[in-house]
Amino acid sequence: MALTAVTIFPTPAQLHAARRFAVHRHGEVSFAVVDSHGRDRGGRNPARRRPSASVVKAMLLVAYVRAHGHERLSPRARGLLAPMIRVSGNQAAEAIHAAVGDAGLRAVGRAARMRNLSTGHGLFDTGITAADQARFFWQLDSLLPRRHRAYARSLLAGVVPEQRWGVPQASHGRFHVLIKGGWRNGLVHQSARVEWWGHHMAIAVLTVGDPGMAYGERTIQGIAARLLSPVSQALKGSAIAHAG
Q1: Is the preceding omega at residue 10 within 30 degrees of 0, hence cis?
Q2: Which of 25, 32, 121, 123 is most exposed by smallest CB count within 10 Å?
Q3: With contact defined as beta carbons under 8 Å apart, do 204 and 74 qualify?
C-alpha cells in the first residue's frame, strides 16, 4: 500500500474490524474516530455519554493555556500542569480546575465543537462522549495558543511509560502519539492523537463495566491496533521503497 497525500485512514475495512472486535468485549464499549482528512467516521456508540475520570485533564490543560495564551506560564502553573498530565495527578487537576472552572471546560467544548459535554457534577464526573473526545484531539493544535502549543503537546506526548497503554501499545513505536487516559473501578478510557509524516487521526475509546483495568487496556489496544494497521502497513511499505 502506497502512502500518498490522498490516502485516507482508517480504511472502511479496518473500521469494520474495530467495531467487530468491540462488540465481543465484556462491558460497554464506545469508540469514535476522526480520520486523516478530519472527517468524523463514527465508530460504536460514539455519542454515548460517560463520566470522564482523568480524561478531562487534557481539556483542563487546553483551558488553562488558552486563558494564558499571551503570557508566560508561571513556574507554579508548570508545576501543576506537568504532573496533571504526565502522571495524572488529581490534586494538580483540582488546582487547575479551581483556576479555570467549569466555564473553562465549556469554553474548550465550544471551541472543539463538542455536542454532548456535561459539567457541574464534579470534575471527574464531567460527561464526555467518544465522538467529542476524538474531535477534540483531532483539532488539538488549532485549539492550543501558539505560544504554549509545543509545551502542551510535550506533556501529552510525555505521559509516563506505565500509563502509555492502549493506543501507544498498538502503535509499536511507528507513530507520534499524544494521549490522556482515565480509569477507576470498572472504567477505563483513553483519547489519542496519532501522527505520522504530516498526517494525523484521532481515536477515543470509553469503556465501562470492565472486569479489570488490564482488560480495559487490552480493549483499547485491540481497537487501536485494528484502526492503525493499514497505516502501519503503508509506513512499512514506504520505508522499504525508500530503502530500495
Answers
A1: yes
A2: 121
A3: no
Question: What is the chain's pLDDT, residue by residue, as a tens digit (244 residues)?
Answer: 444 444 788 999 999 999 999 999 999 999 999 999 999 999 999 999 999 999 999 999 999 999 999 999 999 999 999 999 999 999 999 999 999 999 999 999 999 999 999 999 999 999 999 999 999 999 999 999 999 999 999 999 999 999 999 999 999 999 999 999 999 999 999 999 999 989 999 999 999 999 999 999 999 999 999 999 866 455 554 443 333 3
Contacts of 46 (CB under 8 A, 6+ apart): 30, 31, 32, 40, 129, 130, 131, 134
Between CA 169 and CA 178 the distance in angstroms is: 12
> CA separation (Å) from 207 to 37, 117, 142?
26, 17, 28
Can you tell me the distance from the alpha carbon of 20 to that of 38, in angstroms, rounded to the nearest whole number? 23
Lookup: cell for 37:
482528512
Cα–Cα distance, 92 to 199 (Å, whole number): 32
B/e letters for 175-204, b = 16+ CB within 10 Å, e = fewer, are bebbbbbbbeeebbbbbbbbbbeebbbbbb
- Does the predicted TM-score (pTM) go above 0.85? yes
Grid coordinates representing 49 are 455519554
